[in-house]
Design a protein that fits this description.
The complex is a heterodimer of chains A (about 160) and B (about 160). With about 160 residues, chain A is mainly alpha-helical. Chain A has a domain of about 110 residues: HPT domain (Four Helix Bundle (Hemerythrin (Met), subunit A), Up-down Bundle). The model of chain A has no long low-confidence stretch (mean pLDDT about 90). Chain B has a single domain, classed as Response regulator (Rossmann fold, 3-Layer(aba) Sandwich). Chain B is built from 6 helices and 7 strands, in the order βαβαβαβαβαββα. The chains are: A mainly alpha (about 160), B alpha/beta (about 160). The interface between A and B is large, with 51 and 50 residues. Strand 2 of chain A pairs antiparallel with strand 6 of chain B, so a sheet runs across the interface.
Chain lengths: ~160, ~160
């Protein structure tokens, strides 16, 4: 139902159909804490699969970086951005936060280089990211890697720019 | 008698990663949702939303054939769209403020960043179910009211804190 209409703007009442569909009750009434715990367990149990996915995407990232080195161009860079993003997501879900943070740094560094007026990419920074990601994944360093991991990311941010918005 | 459960709530999940599709599907099933349809592309999602009524959509942003942003724009504005007002939750690895703003301005209801927890997903679903927002149709925007207003009156100390 339209609440208000003026100057080609229509404002409709909130649709409560979904709320009615669950019986007009609060979500907590139909979604017990045990269900949330069980759902969270599914996420935790998937960690190994996401680690394997991280390695698969890491292979693709190294290939993309190799191709880019042969012929630097926007297409090659897009492949690096895409695969770094995939590593970030898979590693993050798997609980490998430092890997995810470093992969994020890489894809943001590449994306920023495409902006107008951005300084040129440094191949050495890309190479460092790619080799470090492989090292961290191989070592299966979970979480942020403690104080050492935090320190590494602080240095990376000085070099490549912030990794948090 | 109304059935107080989640089993009749119909959800469309759009993600191009097989592993993530499976994870979101399994998480939703464990939460009690029984009608969960998963597709791996925005184009397939468009086909499905034209044929079926879903209660809400969970979509990824970065996909090969079309982005989640394009999908939301289609659902909100295309004449063929069956339900332009359907709630949409974006579940993505895009974590920059500009990404959140872009998604908001194209008409997303809720925004979640991967990796996610079950509790975070429940929070977004709760918002969609219990606190639906007014829907705005204008020349340059179709989507939930971007001004989030308090859905319930504050009590006592909370009200005094807000006034201070």
């Amino acid at each position: 139902m339209i609440l208000q209409q003026e100057d080609n703007v229509k404002i409709f009442e909130p649709d409560h159909g979904l709320h009615v569909k669950i019986g007009g009750t609060s979500l907590d009434q139909v979604l017990p804490p045990e269900a949330v715990e069980a759902a969270q367990a599914v996420i935790q149990e998937s960690a190994d699969q996401f680690l394997a996915e991280s390695f698969t995407e890491m292979d693709k990232l190294e290939a993309a970086f190799g191709n880019w080195r042969k012929a630097a161009g926007a297409d090659g860079l897009t492949a690096i951005v895409r695969t770094a993003f995939a590593v970030k997501t898979a590693a993050g879900v798997g609980g490998y936060d430092l890997v995810a943070a470093l992969a994020k740094s890489l894809h943001l560094y590449c994306e920023r280089s495409l902006e107008v007026g951005a300084p040129p990419l440094k191949a050495s920074i890309l190479e460092w990211h790619v080799s470090s990601l492989r090292t961290l994944l191989t070592a299966r360093i979970k979480g942020m890697g403690g104080a050492a991991g935090e320190a590494v990311m602080a240095e990376v941010e000085k070099l490549c720019g912030p990794t948090t918005a | 008698m109304v059935d107080s459960s989640l089993k009749n709530v119909s959800i469309l999940v759009v993600d191009d990663t097989t592993l993530m599709q499976q994870l979101i599907h399994d998480v939703l099933k464990r939460l009690g949702f029984q009608k969960v349809v998963v597709v791996n592309s925005g184009r397939k999602a468009i086909e499905l939303v034209a044929q079926h009524s879903f209660d809400f959509i969970i979509t990824d942003w970065r996909m090969d054939d079309m982005t989640g942003i394009d999908l939301i724009r289609y659902v909100r504005t295309a004449p063929q769209s069956r339900n332009p007002h359907i709630p949409i939750i974006m579940l993505t690895g895009n974590s920059e403020v500009r990404d959140v703003i872009e998604a908001r301005d194209v008409g997303v209801n809720e925004y979640m960043i991967k990796p996610f927890s079950a509790e975070q997903l429940v929070k977004r679903i709760r918002s969609v179910i219990e606190h639906p927002r007014r829907f705005v149709e204008a020349a340059n925007y179709n989507g939930p009211d971007r001004r989030r207003v308090l859905q319930f009156p504050l009590k006592g100390a909370e009200r005094r804190k807000r006034r201070a």
